[in-house]
Design brief:
By secondary structure, the protein is of the alpha/beta class. The chain has helices at residues 12-24, 42-55, 69-76, 89-99, 113-125, 132-143, and strands at residues 2-7, 28-31, 60-65, 83-85, 103-107.
Length: 145
């Protein structure tokens, strides 16, 4: 799977861990995040991953900032993106099963590297259920206008 990954300065180390983890599992990773600890603006990286996912250039996205919140808000501004912040695997699983999330986000200051791997793996391994959930996903898409 082709996965876009983006991060700000707070998440360089965790981004590299997750990138390596995904590549070890055979995924192609498109790194559009920063690779330095110099202060930068997380919205730019959230938008980049959002646009790659929305356009189909990437099949999924992973975003990491201090909390995961700001960068996911930026991604969610892109039409077609359903980014979800998760701090544990259960939310990641249900975000895919029920909301058909296409980007996962978490915080480098919130979760450790092993938890981040579990969140990412759970999310990637989960399938969207469709069915009764599709009506609600359609409603979310309609809000975008």
């Amino acid at each position: 799977m082709k996965i876009a990954i983006g991060n700000d300065h707070a998440a360089v180390e965790l981004k590299n861990i997750i990138k390596e983890h995904l590549e070890a599992k055979g995924h192609e990773v498109i790194n559009v995040g920063t690779d330095t600890n110099d202060s930068c603006d997380y919205p730019a990286y959230g938008e980049k991953v959002g646009r790659l996912v929305a356009s189909g250039e990437a099949e999924a996205g992973v975003l990491i900032c201090g909390t995961g919140v700001g960068i996911s808000i930026a991604a969610n501004k892109v039409k077609g993106v359903r980014a979800c912040v998760c701090s544990e695997p259960y939310t990641a699983k249900l975000s895919k099963m029920h909301n058909n999330s296409n980007i996962i986000a978490f915080g480098a200051r919130v979760v450790g590297s092993e938890m981040a791997k579990m969140i990412t793996d759970t999310w990637l391994e989960t399938e969207y259920e469709g069915g009764r959930h599709q009506r609600r996903v359609d409603m979310l898409d309609a809000i975008e206008g």
